[in-house]
Amino acid sequence: MLSLGHRSVSPDAKRPLRKIIMEIAEIELGREFDLGRVLKHWKERHAEGKTLRRKVPREAHAEWKPGKNRPDPLKLLAASNKGRQEHLIPLRMGRMAASPFAFLRGSACVMAADLSTTPISGIPVIIDGDAHLNNFGMYGTPLREVVFDLNDFDEAIIGPWEWDLKRLVASINVAGRANGLNRGERDTAVKQCVKGYRSNVHRLKSMGVLDVWYLHYYPGSTNPLAKMTPEVEAVFAKTLAKARHTDNRTLLPKVIEPTGHGGWKSKEDPPVLTSAHASKAKVIDALNRYAESLSPERRFMLARYHLVAAADRVVGVGSVGTRAYLLLLFGNGDDDPLFLQVKESVMPAHAPHLPPLPGDFHQNGKRRSRGTKSTASVF
Asked: Which of 32, 59, 191, 337 gives the lowest tally of CB atoms within 10 Å of its CB?
């Protein structure tokens, strides 16, 4: 047995990460689509999971200590700035320096390096890659309903399931500290999060594929799995009301203004919001090519809009410096706006610590799109 802090871990738990993931990924993700292949019953998979847990027990995840060869976090951040727009790098660093939680948000590459040295069970899934607390919220579906879901898939990749959960609970602890929670209160919050994760895994394991596929959490509806205090219910109600009110029309006056000659232009708030009018022709060309990738019915709908204005818009913390555009389109008149976000996709934070990605995951734009559609319930 090998020692990890004060816990005992079997030798398998200390095998190189690349070897574990590479072997499992080739088995689970390398197969061609084949409906003739007989899948294992969930009870068999449950038993296999218990076998894996004996090799990598829960206690193996309890402690983490920086290794002697841990990369310098500042050097990792400097490397992650390469390729970004240089004039925005100071803004990125400034936003990260605002608080410990802001630093956590912007330093996915640092935590990715740390997670790469932790024990894993060897089960790869499509992970969000940046599942911190602020990336959860209430979002609209194509059917115009509001669901509680995960957002921001810039770091989506195929990797160990543990990494998303550890990113989430770390963010809960840091956010709790920023909000004045003591150690005991933060400990309770983290444990409640893990309990909720475990309870839902247990609930989902025997459900039918379609039942899971169409499963959503609708804020405001009765959820027998969660009991909320009146204070929490009030927070949910306020957030839900805001989510229902936020749409293309409410965003319009915040970022776009009329020119006075029947036209529209982006408001100027440099460096956060600046006009990209000079790139309008290139944007239209890119949108036309993008439309070719859409399903026929969505392409038909998009064809009823035309581009009116384009802006460079800085969003988030970790994304600052990558190229992001906000596009305004009008459909059936000036009171029928549609906003589209065009965002540059770069190498995800976990990529250096994983084997080469299969198929569409090689190209970062396709990787992000595939990760979004596979993980978010609103698509």
From this structure: 32
